[in-house]
User: Fold this.
Amino acid sequence: MSSAAPRVTGQDHLWSVSEHLEDILATVRPLDPIELQLLDAQGCVLVEDVTVPVSLPPFDNSSMDGYAVRVADVAGASEEYPAVLTVVGDVAAGQAELLHVGPGQTARIMTGAPLPPGAEAVVPVEWTDGGLGAGPVSAMRARSTSPEGASGQVHVHRPAQARAHVRAKGSDVKAGDLALSAGTVLGPPQIGLLAAIGRGTVRVRPRPRVVVLSTGSELVQPDGELESGQIYDSNSYALCAAARDAGAMSYRVGAVADDAETLRATIEDQLIRSDIVVTTGGVSVGAYDVVKEALSSVGDEDEAGGGIEFRKLAMQPGKPQGFGTIGPDHTPLLALPGNPVSSYVSFELFVRPAIRTLMGVADVHRPTTRATLRTDKALTSPAGRRQFLRGRYADGEVTPVGGAGSHLIAALAHADALIVVPESVESVEPGTEVEVVLLG
Amino acid sequence: MSSAAPRVTGQDHLWSVSEHLEDILATVRPLDPIELQLLDAQGCVLVEDVTVPVSLPPFDNSSMDGYAVRVADVAGASEEYPAVLTVVGDVAAGQAELLHVGPGQTARIMTGAPLPPGAEAVVPVEWTDGGLGAGPVSAMRARSTSPEGASGQVHVHRPAQARAHVRAKGSDVKAGDLALSAGTVLGPPQIGLLAAIGRGTVRVRPRPRVVVLSTGSELVQPDGELESGQIYDSNSYALCAAARDAGAMSYRVGAVADDAETLRATIEDQLIRSDIVVTTGGVSVGAYDVVKEALSSVGDEDEAGGGIEFRKLAMQPGKPQGFGTIGPDHTPLLALPGNPVSSYVSFELFVRPAIRTLMGVADVHRPTTRATLRTDKALTSPAGRRQFLRGRYADGEVTPVGGAGSHLIAALAHADALIVVPESVESVEPGTEVEVVLLG
Assistant:
């Protein structure tokens, strides 16, 4: 670290939002995959093509509670002239030993039970007298209270075509089929499919572990007492929640006072459980900007271009930003500005895509849309800066919430969108179409 | 429980999807609120109006790293004719004891630090020589390496209006303002706001605890070996994941064999950790439908209308359904059919809204939209049943995925929408506009 105060020169490169983001996305790599229990893999990205080891269903089975029959035996059956069949027993779901259904015979069969040999179709119980000899029934009697239902005779009132109410082996998926391809995000139905084909574990990229650390001697925990000149730490809470919202696990380290040695030691301590480190505050041009002070000198000596670089971005809020890698594992670190709105907007624009990249998700960005600006007076924006204003979006229109001030956290809590004002635009009239980032 | 097989009569009321849902929503009540640590309350619904106890910012403070000045002292200042001020010291963020800035004096001030008495405005460090006497600088030197920056003289190159770069006390929110109203779902920015106003804990409705239990003697854990007639249990996995996705905590009890006593005992055991119980399978008209058998006789004697009622719904898939309350706390229980697609669709239509109701969320339903049906041949649907077909939705169009079979779990895993075919419709031509439930 140089002790000379930097001069204003042409070398003070102003980074565009896109350049900074590109640098981050070119550096951050998807996490190495691990084998996880199925339910632990929810929300994670599959890294393997999963093929079907066993056809689904694994055997021909009944789609109804009813009677397994031979087609010829029920041909022409009606309520007036029922086919009368001898019940040879029950076929319950999960039953391994199957009865044979011969001519004039039937087996009572439950939904999901294997079609017994000899049978060609299933007639639903509602098409029969359930063995009671007194007209159509709407259900079977429970086996536990009426074991006689598995024997005797049954009257069948309607014919059945071959394979009626039979789910064929492999009619869902066949052994060797591709069940899910690499890159699939595992939601509930995908987890259901993996279970159905017998996968108890699955190879995915794990949830990234995000350590969030706010800095500033003025910061007090929310349940503490404010002394003169102090404020409550909100960034570490908001960003921990935002990291989880992005799909990560997050650890809130809380506020570290403005002391470079303490900060450096704290970050080094945390690397063991960090896939990415996020700090807030201490990155600007002040004399107490400890993040900058502590991390500008932290080299990442094993890797060319390692270390944390501090930059000015052509954006508002969020001008000062730090990014790089740190420690033996080249852990990515994003040093965000300390104003609550600046840190939150920076998180959305830079940390969220980094987290999504670690997860291996294909589309790392928030959805954007076009909307008509609803406001009484024109919005103003500094020339040469991409401005992100807070807004509420509904039905193709967006209304600004609060002003441009990066300390307006109450307004942020009532926004659900960011209104983007491009670098070249200094004023946006009411009714203009603008780009909007939907915060979800 | 009656051992008579039910007869087909006019009393066999066929419930509509809406009637069943209304019954559920009229029975399920939001959970009692509890006080949670802020980050534990993420995704939960606030039950209190939260007012601001202390204005934000709590004091006038600097929005820049710079110098706190008296306006008259820098009037007319320029780079050629700078105002030369005596630096009386630093004002860092969080500093309690403040210097007084007298005429001809200035204090070096950091972003977020309180405006010291006597000072009226802040000039950014970039408008000064940073005390070095050699033209404009872009940043301060770090205090730790250059303590002399807090003394000596500074040249200021531009004038400042009163209150320039000063954030006024209360300019974000004022003490007594409503910060967030009851009913707000706590996302990252809301959690940030609560922290900022000093709330370490917050009163919310907790996440519902959902116990998921699949039944069927044919079910094997996904990492087990399939014997003849067996299939893998997928429902308990898919529904546990779906419950989490809805905002709940879920406990997978796994598959219970078709034995009514075991099932009843298992459910009673689980009630201690259940805000809602979901079972799959065993609710239809077969002789081994143990859920129906076990729960039809479980009264909820303390409450009129308690107990579990089994119904036929005018829908496909998902015709057989059970619903009621159970145990001393009148815990809601939904007994879903066992086919994977039936149980998942039933979860989306009935369990998810129940979970969202327990959470106290205002809008409990998935979003729906209208879409043009893209398909080669007309869809058919049974008269008098509301059919829910799986589809993929994009850009106002929906394409069916797989057929109507309720065992087609692979197709479900590639769907992101349900196509709704109303009770009165038996055929839907390609190009028709249909209602679509977006599964998100």
